[in-house]
Each structure stands twice: as C-alpha cells, then as structure tokens.
Specification:
The protein is an alpha+beta fold and about 180 residues long. Helix content is about 15%, strand content about 35%. Strands 1, 2, 3, 4, 5, 6, 7, 8, 9, 10 and 11 form an 11-stranded mixed beta sheet that branches.
Length: about 180
Amino acid sequence: MTTLSPMMRTGGGRVAVGVSLLAVLTLAGCAVSSDTPPGQLFNQPVGQNVNVPFDAMLGDQFMAVRNAVAVVDGDTADTASLVVTLVNQALEADVLESASLEGDPLVLSGGPIEFQPGQSVGIGFDENATATQQPFGVGPGNWVDITLNFTRAGTAELQILVVPDGDEYVPLQSP
C-alpha cells in the first residue's frame, strides 16, 4: 500500500507543480518573443507611431504615421522640424492639410502634401517635404503635442519626443 504525503492527499502538490510549470512556460515565452539577442541591450526607437483614424486595423483604409519626432537645432531649440514617414494605406488619395506643434502651426514646404494610394512620404528628409516651426523653444528630452490634419483620414493627435539634431538626424537623409 502506497502512503501519500499530506500535501499530495490535498492536491497541494499538483497545484505547486502546475504553478511551477506555468512559470517556466511564461519565462520561456518571454525569451521567444524578443527580437533582441540574449545578453544585448534593446534600444527602443524614439519615434511615435499611430494610424489615422486611430482605431484602424489591418485591412482597413488609413494613413500610417511612423517614427514621428521633433528635431531641434542645438540647445537653443529656436527651430523645430517634424521628422516622420507618412504612408497612405487607403484606396483613395489623401492630403495632409496642416500640422501643428503645441498648438502652433508648422510651415509645410510647398503647402498641403498629397498622398496617392500606397504612397510613402518622408517629411523632414533631404529633398522631401519639410514641416518647421520657428520660434519653438522646447528643448530636447521633452514631449510635445502634435496634430496632423488629413482630408480623408481625419485628425491625428499624439505626443512626440523632442530630440537634438545629432548625427542621427543631421544631415537628414532619405531612408
């Protein structure tokens, strides 16, 4: 006759084994889901992403706002430049009518920017459209509110990081 320990008779042993197994599987899942090799630091990108309209999902028509940051000129932060990639994921053309930082308008070079279906436009990159604001006065490391107004997609409101014009952004080059 086999004698069970008090823990096994009450089912506590099975619970302990189940909890341990769950912990091992959870930790293993964390390692599998990371794109960063073990032992290396992960650098989170600084740019913000959003779809317009905000609730758009895969298969919907939307304007994709990718890696948006405000780049300022040195410590004085007199001028801010919006650096962002916009992708029209709709079946019809759309237009970026206006943009503002902290409620003040950005100057869009050449006026409103039109996007054909499937077209990607980098704003703030060399030889592309620019969106600037002067005077600005918010230094690197701060978060600012940005508003983008599209004719069809609607309005996007998000917070973006202010970054200095270091090696990563000056001179700005197309991706």
